[in-house]
């Protein structure tokens, strides 16, 4: 057992929700027995967890002393018109959360008997939905989340209902004397014909990752059930401090004719690992999974995705773009699994990467595993550097070297930013991304709106 596992086990609190006791016990046992991932573990071959073994960050999350204005500045997305639920160090901040947001979600600690039954039906069940070797159902970080689960956010949209505005869940971590852990859990259930736009926003106090200070470990797990003819637009945005560590997983189960559209962003923290599993369990469902990762300094970002096509007549499209700067490292492993009964499947996967320096590194591995004979699938990956001729051309037109790098970098990811249904999020992200593309950050920020 690793020192991280031992420290986390020692810090686990006694269960305060008796109806979650079985899940807590099973999670604790699985976490305790799970082997610690090493470079010999295929799913972690290029993802070092030394950050966590050096500092397990197992202390209980402290109460924040940050001002209301500072928290609001970190949580707000300018021009975003939606309901906002703010959680600081894992605890709901009722002062900064919208009253209507508090009405739209349920904390499991306050769940009714009916809501408890709904949660028990789905919590932890998605972990058994994949048999993919690289995304082991016994993933120890998910089991840690199960073991520690005392509260969670339940978002339930009733049959043929639609939330009139997007719902933002903002998880904000602050600095503390000792490294601490936040095990965030979200359960989203859309009944037949329901619609929702959901934004999961993970940030450090000032909302950027350019300053040190947040020594937290976030272990975030989201489980999603999209019912028959239901539609979910899902953003998962990670903009944390460089000192933070973030491990997240998203498990999605799609019913008949369900539609799931997702955008993932990874910018911050010295260690970021995201596992995404989408399970097409009933015919007619469709998923679009897009993502952008932009590590810099010595950051490590790792995305492992798996699209499980278990039945016929489903479609999926997955596009991830990476821009790696300085001495940063990125990992992308995308897998499409076509089961033997999944005839008439259409599935595509594309991963393209841009290295901004000679010391930047990417390890990419797209995979297709097909057991049906009447399918149409494609996958591919590329790695490139900025086009020197294009950069020289821009500089010859009076554009600085940094501005040229920003423009060319945006050209690499613009299709994904433009495809966002919520334009306010894209508008907010562009200057944040631009600062990561320019070496000296001396460009005109208005430039990013014209790219």
What is the CA-CA span between the terminal residues?
50 Å
- Tell me the β content: 35-45%
Let me know the largest β-sheet: 11 strands, mixed
Output the structural class. alpha/beta
Name the overall outline.
globular
Binned, the helix content reads 10-25%
Tell me how many strands there are: 21
Low-confidence stretches: 129-135, 207-212
The whole-angstrom Rg is 21 Å
Number of helices: 10
Total of domains: 2
Give the integer mean of the pLDDT values.
Answer: 90
Can you walk through the features of this model?
This protein has helices at residues 3-11, 21-33, 50-54, 68-75, 99-104, 113-122, 140-148, 388-396, 401-418, 423-437; strands spanning 59-60, 83-88, 91-92, 105-107, 153-157, 167-173, 180-182, 185-190, 195-204, 216-226, 231-239, 245-254, 259-266, 271-280, 286-293, 300-309, 315-324, 329-338, 346-355, 361-370, 376-385. The protein folds into two domains: 3-385, no CATH class; 388-451, no CATH class. It has 451 residues and is α/β, with parallel strands linked by helices. The N and C termini lie far apart (50 Å). Strands 1, 4, 5, 7, 8, 10, 12, 14, 16, 18 and 20 form an eleven-stranded mixed sheet that branches. It has a ten-stranded mixed sheet with strand order 3-2-6-9-11-13-15-17-19-21.
Task: Based on the model shown, name its key terms.
451 residues; single chain; alpha/beta; 2 domains; 35% strand
């Amino acid at each position: 057992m690793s020192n991280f596992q031992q420290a986390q086990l020692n810090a686990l609190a006694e269960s305060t929700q008796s109806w979650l006791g079985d899940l807590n016990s099973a999670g604790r046992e699985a976490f305790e027995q799970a082997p610690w991932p090493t470079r010999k573990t295929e799913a972690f071959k290029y993802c070092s967890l030394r950050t966590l073994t050096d500092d397990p960050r197992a202390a209980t999350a402290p109460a924040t002393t940050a001002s209301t204005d500072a928290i609001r500045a970190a949580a707000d997305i300018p021009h975003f018109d939606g309901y906002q639920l703010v959680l600081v160090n894992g605890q709901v901040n009722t002062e900064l959360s919208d009253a209507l947001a508090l009405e739209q979600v349920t904390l499991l600690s306050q769940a009714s008997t009916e809501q408890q039954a709904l949660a028990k039906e789905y919590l932890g069940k998605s972990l058994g939905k994949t048999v993919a070797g690289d995304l082991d159902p016994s993933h120890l970080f998910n089991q840690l989340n199960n073991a520690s689960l005392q509260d969670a956010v339940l978002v339930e949209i009733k049959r043929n209902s639609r939330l009139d505005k997007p719902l933002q869940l903002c998880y904000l971590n602050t600095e503390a004397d000792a490294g601490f852990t936040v095990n965030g859990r979200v359960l989203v259930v859309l009944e037949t014909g329901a619609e929702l736009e959901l934004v999961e926003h993970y940030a450090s106090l000032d909302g950027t990752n350019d300053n040190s200070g947040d020594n937290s470990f976030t272990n975030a797990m989201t489980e999603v059930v999209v019912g028959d003819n239901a539609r979910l637009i899902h953003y998962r945005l990670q903009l944390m401090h460089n000192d933070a560590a973030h491990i997240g997983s998203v498990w999605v189960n799609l019913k008949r004719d369900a539609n799931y559209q997702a955008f993932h962003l990874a910018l911050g923290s010295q260690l970021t690992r995201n596992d995404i599993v989408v399970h097409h369990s009933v015919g007619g469902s469709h998923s679009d999974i897009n993502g952008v990762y932009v590590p810099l300094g010595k950051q490590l970002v790792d995305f492992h995705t798996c699209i499980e096509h278990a039945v016929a007549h489903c479609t999926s499209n997955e596009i991830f773009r990476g821009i790696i700067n300085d001495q940063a490292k990125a990992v992308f492993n995308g897998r499409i699994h076509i089961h033997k009964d999944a005839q008439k499947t259409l599935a595509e996967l594309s991963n393209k990467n841009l290295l901004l320096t000679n010391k930047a590194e990417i390890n990419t591995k797209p995979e297709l595993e097909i057991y049906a004979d009447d399918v149409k699938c494609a996958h591919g990956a590329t790695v490139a550097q900025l086009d020197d001729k294009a950069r020289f051309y821009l500089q010859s037109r009076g554009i600085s070297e940094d501005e040229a790098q920003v423009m060319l970098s945006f050209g690499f990811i613009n299709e994904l930013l433009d495809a966002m249904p919520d334009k306010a999020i894209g508008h907010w992200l562009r200057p944040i991304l631009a600062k990561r593309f320019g070496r000296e950050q001396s460009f005109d920020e208005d430039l990013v709106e014209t790219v």
